[in-house]
Amino acid sequence: MITFDGKLHVFNVKGGSGIPRVVTLSPKVSCSCLATCECNHVMAARMFLGMMIPSKSGGGNLSQLRRSRREKRVGENNHIRMILRVHIKSVVI
After folding, report:
1. 34 and 12 in a common domain
2. Which residues of the chain have pLDDT under 70?
3. 55 within some domain
């Protein structure tokens, strides 16, 4: 359930847990939940207004970015690790 408080310019979004969260979209996007990135409460408030939801083409979290960067390095040890990964994946599947 989503309600808009015109005096405070905030949205009250009640999620699946039943706890109401306070969401502001202007001047800075924020939510009263503990999420560190954009949560579904903010997305619900944007959908309520008919705004477009930004796509998640950021490339993933920092661990995924580090891991993908690490695998691109060239070297004997890295080559052996990649061969072992392929071998282990083919055995497991």
Report:
1. yes
2. 54-60, 68-93
3. no
